[in-house]
Amino acid sequence: MITCEGLVKIYKTDEVEVVALQGLNLTVERGEMMAIIGNSGSGKSTFMNILGGLDRPSAGTVRVGDWDLLKISDEQLVEYKRSTVGFVWQNNARNLLPYLTALENVEMPMMLGGKLDRAYAKQLLEWVGLKERMNNKLHQLSGGEQQRVAIAISLSNRPKLLLADEPTGSVDSATSDRIMDIFRTFNRELGVTIVIVTHDLELAGKVDRVVAIRDGLTSTEFIKRNPELDSAVYNTETVGRRTVKEEHEAYVVIDRAGRLQIPKEYLETLGIGNKASLEFDGEKIVIKAPKSLEGKV
Ligand SMILES: Nc1ncnc2c1ncn2[C@@H]1O[C@H](COP(=O)(O)OP(=O)(O)OP(=O)(O)O)[C@@H](O)[C@H]1O
Fold first, then answer.
1. CA separation (Å) from 229 to 8, 211, 224, 226?
2. CA-closest residue to ligand 1 atom 5
3. Residue range 255-284, pLDDT digits in tens
4. In terms of CB atoms within 10 Å, which of 29, 63, 228, 260 comes out highest?
5. Distance from Cα 20 to the centre of ligand 1, integer Å
6. Which residues line ligand 1 (CB under 6 A)?
């Protein structure tokens, strides 16, 4: 569904250039539900904005389905945003129309797209747990319920890719679990590919794969140990919330040129600067401080 190779994004402001993405590589399969984590400033939102067609890449390859987002024209970009991607942002509910019902709010983008499908609109509201409230006006719903209407709207035009940037940023843990379960329902029922940006490692335990971005590059991947196991089953009072570390296996990402990112704390502990000694014993590769430094750290 998504292929990125050597994706670069440079922001130019007056005299300063900021390299937000430094050659990011990432592939997301059709029907996958995955998360992106990373520190503030690591380039997560930049990446999501590029995938969503809100920002243009500077160089590299980025393909979503049949679309090449580096070469796409402005007219095609409008069509791409309308037909291929759906968005869930933290404050999505702000864009809803308060004097319309929940159902009318979900139907509105369908009407604008010329494809009203009431049965599907009702189905979406049922999936987000608002079956009984769909004929209530927006102002009669709580903030959390309004947010769920906004989540239903994100799929109203049947996008193939759903992008969620910190969708659970300002809610309590029970609500964020619920939102993740809604995403899982969408994913299972509609086969929609879902990419979620989050700071919350516990939430990341609810997805199949987590990719960590550091300094505008993918650094580590966590892949679910048992993808058949729906993590929702763990979400009970007795077992509690499981974390990405318990449920996923960690892998370091190696790019096509064979480069990998080694965590800074490992390098500091071993006193490795810009050179290391590399040994291959036929089974494993050992990275050590340069021979001249051995024993000095
Ligand atoms: N429009 C812009 N103009 C200039 N620099 C920008 C712009 N947008 C982002 N940047 C810079 O690009 C880098 C990556 O920012 P980005 O917002 O993608 O990070 P992030 O990982 O989403 O951070 P956060 O978790 O804090 O939202 C940062 O150094 C940021 O200052």
1. 36, 19, 9, 6
2. 11
3. 777 778 787 888 888 888 888 888 888 999
4. 63
5. 6
6. 11, 13, 18, 20, 38, 40-46
In this structure, the answer to whether residues 288 and 256 fall within a common structural domain is no
Kind of pairing, strands 193-197 and 16-28? unpaired
Q: What is the extent of the structural domain holding 14?
A: 1-84+161-169+188-261
Q: State the ipTM, two decimals.
A: 0.94
Q: What is the Å distance from ligand 1's center to 36 Cα?
A: 15
Domain co-membership, 246 together with 165: yes
**For the segment 215-263, what is each residue's pLDDT rounded down to a tens digit?**
777 777 777 766 555 544 444 333 445 555 566 777 777 777 777 878 7
* 19-74-195-42 Cα dihedral, nearest 10 degrees: 10
Kindly state whether residue 37 falls inside one of the protein's structural domains. Answer: yes
pTM reported for the whole predicted model: 0.84
Q: Mapping DSSP to helix (H, G, I), strand (E, B) and coil, where does residue 69 land?
A: coil
Both 211 and 243 in a single domain?
yes
1 and 76 fall within a common domain: yes
Residue 78 backbone phi and psi in degrees, to 5: -60, -45
Q: Are 165 and 253 within one domain?
A: yes
Question: Within a domain: residue 34?
Answer: yes
Using the mean position of ligand 1's atoms as its centre, give its distance from the Cα of residue 55 in Å.
12
Q: Are residues 18 and 53 in the same domain?
A: yes
